[in-house]
Write a sequence for this structure.
């Protein structure tokens, strides 16, 4: 049986079995030596018994069952004692959490990792239940929400960096801001485990938790912790870095939430192909992405993404399809089912739903012109209509802390002239509202030695402008020359795997 067939058999098996099966070899009670080795003062083996936790001496991991709102075990969280790595396994379309409660508390403290969870348990906070999210700050599955509905007050206590602070505020919207309090991530109010290590008073930090303020009003005093957090974590504030496009990291500094990016270029210059690889790079790093492809069918777009992911065409290697498709499905990429002209309201509703359910942080609209001609309000003036659409996406990015990327056609220019920010079709609204403006310049048709390159003509974050050469690898549908060696290694590795399984 080949590696692909083995993986498929495992997946099919999981679909048939409803009861979750642990990945551990042997599960025993947590011994006192393991409990002591965690160096959490006040933690007892009876705490693990209450959690129904176990220990696998072969894997050297602690195993915590994850339970649904109906108190059914639907998964597990493994904590590797050697390196502190946490891994979550759950059944499809079901999600549970770690919950420690004694009595009927109306308050709960929500943390993102096992060590913080155990520290709070050890402090015997009688008035609070302790909750550990299944996937940390990556996503908050909607299946977890019913289990939290019974609490009148939720204190979100996450780690000390600006990205976690943003996630806390995003999660508070999902959990109902009126009942959420936040513990600001600073050096004096770190995560529970760090607070214990620094011998800080856990109860005093809890008393400093701050209610989520009115979303339309703020003061400098309220921003002080945000400013300090940004200064302490400047690299993380810069955003998620691209691995395939290091030049973009030097110019744009990274991909940040809450921004609006516009990309344009001549017809046939490869805007969609570039954007698919651009988004794939980010999705592989956990940036949940929603594609709105109104011009190209989703099956064709997904095929391009898969080919860029694998690094070579699967047309002559169809026996590998199931393997790579299964691998690709692990990453957070979603697609709107629209095609052709669509009303703005319908598209915005789909995005807001995806943001709520799938924790989308990046939205791509390809292209904006396909959304025009539907609105009855601005039908008489296409520029007004386009301005209205751009303003709506700008508001969406700010309100939901999303990064919105709009693919737009340029105005008709002379072929020998370079495109500029003013070449974007319509009024100046697009370039004014955008935080970043990217232009694909294609000089191959006007010069014998003409090149194609990406030009950054607006960068509101740092002001850095410049160009990135675009050399196209047709086999991989890729503009990332730095990834060619990796793609060859991946192809060779797959061939070796096939040979071994034959």
């Amino acid at each position: 049986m080949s590696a692909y067939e083995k993986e498929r058999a495992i997946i099919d098996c999981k679909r048939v079995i409803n009861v979750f099966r642990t990945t551990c070899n042997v599960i025993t009670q947590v011994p006192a030596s393991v409990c002591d080795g965690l160096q959490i003062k006040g933690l007892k083996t009876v705490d693990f018994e209450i959690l129904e936790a176990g220990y696998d001496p072969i894997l050297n991991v602690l195993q915590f069952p994850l339970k649904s709102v109906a108190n059914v075990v639907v998964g597990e969280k493994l904590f590797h004692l050697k390196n502190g790595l946490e891994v979550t396994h759950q059944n499809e379309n079901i999600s549970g959490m770690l919950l420690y409660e004694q009595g009927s508390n109306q308050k709960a403290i929500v943390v993102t990792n096992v060590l913080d969870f155990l520290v709070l348990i050890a402090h015997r906070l009688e008035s609070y239940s302790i909750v550990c999210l299944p996937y940390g700050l990556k996503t908050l599955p909607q299946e977890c929400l019913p289990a939290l509905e019974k609490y009148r007050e939720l204190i979100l206590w996450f780690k000390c960096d600006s990205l976690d602070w943003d996630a806390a505020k995003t999660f508070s919207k999902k959990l109902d801001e009126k009942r959420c309090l936040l513990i600001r991530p600073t050096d004096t109010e770190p995560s529970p485990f760090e607070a214990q290590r620094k011998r800080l008073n856990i109860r005093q930090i809890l008393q400093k938790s701050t209610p989520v303020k009115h979303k339309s009003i703020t003061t400098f005093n309220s921003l002080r912790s945000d400013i300090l957090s940004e200064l302490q974590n400047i690299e993380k504030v810069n955003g998620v870095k691209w691995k395939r496009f290091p030049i973009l990291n030097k110019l744009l500094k990274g991909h940040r939430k809450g921004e609006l990016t516009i990309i344009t270029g001549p017809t046939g210059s490869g805007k969609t192909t570039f954007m698919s690889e651009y988004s794939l790079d980010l999705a592989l790093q956990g940036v949940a992405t929603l594609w709105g492809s109104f011009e190209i069918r989703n099956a064709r777009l997904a095929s391009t993404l898969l080919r860029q992911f694998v690094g070579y065409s699967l047309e002559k290697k169809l026996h590998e399809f199931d393997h790579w498709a299964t691998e690709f499905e692990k990453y957070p990429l979603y697609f709107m089912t629209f095609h052709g002209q669509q009303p703005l309201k319908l598209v915005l509703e789909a995005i807001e739903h995806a943001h709520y359910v799938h924790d989308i942080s990046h939205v791509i609209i390809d292209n904006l012109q396909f959304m025009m001609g539907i609105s009855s309000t601005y039908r008489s003036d296409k520029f007004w209509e386009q301005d209205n659409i751009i303003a709506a996406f700008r508001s969406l990015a700010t309100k939901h802390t999303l990064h919105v990327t709009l693919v737009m056609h340029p105005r008709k220019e002379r072929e020998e002239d370079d495109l500029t920010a003013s070449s974007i079709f319509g009024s100046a609204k697009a370039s004014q509202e955008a935080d970043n403006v990217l232009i694909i310049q294609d000089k191959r048709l006007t010069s014998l030695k003409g090149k194609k390159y990406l030009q950054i003509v607006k960068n509101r974050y740092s002001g850095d402008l410049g160009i990135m050469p675009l050399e196209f690898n047709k086999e991989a549908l890729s503009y990332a020359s730095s990834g060619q060696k990796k793609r060859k290694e991946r192809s060779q590795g797959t061939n070796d795997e096939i040979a071994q399984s034959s």
Q: What stands out?
A: The radius of gyration is 25 Å.
